[in-house]
Amino acid sequence: MTGHHDGRSQPGAPEADPSGAPAWDGVLFDLDDTLLDLKTAQRAAFTATVCRQWPGVDALGEGPLRAAAVDFAADVHGHYQRYIAGELTFAEQRLARAADALQGLGAPGAEAVPDAQLWVTEYEHLVRSHWRLFPEVAAVLEQVRASGRPVGIVTNNVEEYQRGKAAAIGLGWIDVVVGSDTAGAPKPDAAPFLAGCAGLRTETARTLFVGDSLTHDVAGASGAGLVPVWSVRDAADTADGSGEGAGTEPVDRRGHEIRRATAAPVREPERGCWRIGSLEALRAWL
Length: 286
What we know:
By secondary structure, the chain is an alpha/beta fold. It is built from eleven helices and seven strands. Helices cover 42% and strands 10% of the residues.
């Protein structure tokens, strides 16, 4: 589908073009692990911080440390979701994740207790220094902008923090950024999705939502009436991209085969969504 759009849905327009692609006037994205490669940043910051917390960790070898970094980024015990639910502060969820990792690695005595200065302040500086967009993101978003379609972000973190993050990685031009605090509820609640569409001035049925979480992004967008697009960059990755890399959910291997077979989004009827391996696939709909 080609042409320029002013961000407002056009009554009477067809629901899809002859190729089967959905008709759309704007797009909302999840931020972490959809546009921003947060897990890579977290793993790098974790490795540097755990080595400062426990200098003896190097004796374990590279394998255990790498596995601990992956689990920390995935937040396998769900502490980030407790933060989203208001049960923990942001600092508390970070310290809880660090404690899980240190104990899992077998840190002795006091070294198994996370140092707050290291894990809250210094870790934050480190992870920010590693924030990067996925390689294709900037070019694809520019192409979406060139088509006249508005772009926004809907995220399960506070708006101010995520606006700062977006600006730091070159996405400060995105005006519509909806956080769980400003929407009044986190994804998968309908409120943040509807707030995003209101910001874009698009109808829900003609707005794409692209995210990496089946639970928070795909199910939430579908329930709110948007067109859900599931971003699965690594078929071997079991993380369910729920904010700060939180939660786990099995991902089958078919995604890798699908992405090799086609660069266009693939319909997943059993999940009620489209599936892509990178944002490059969206070019087929421009």
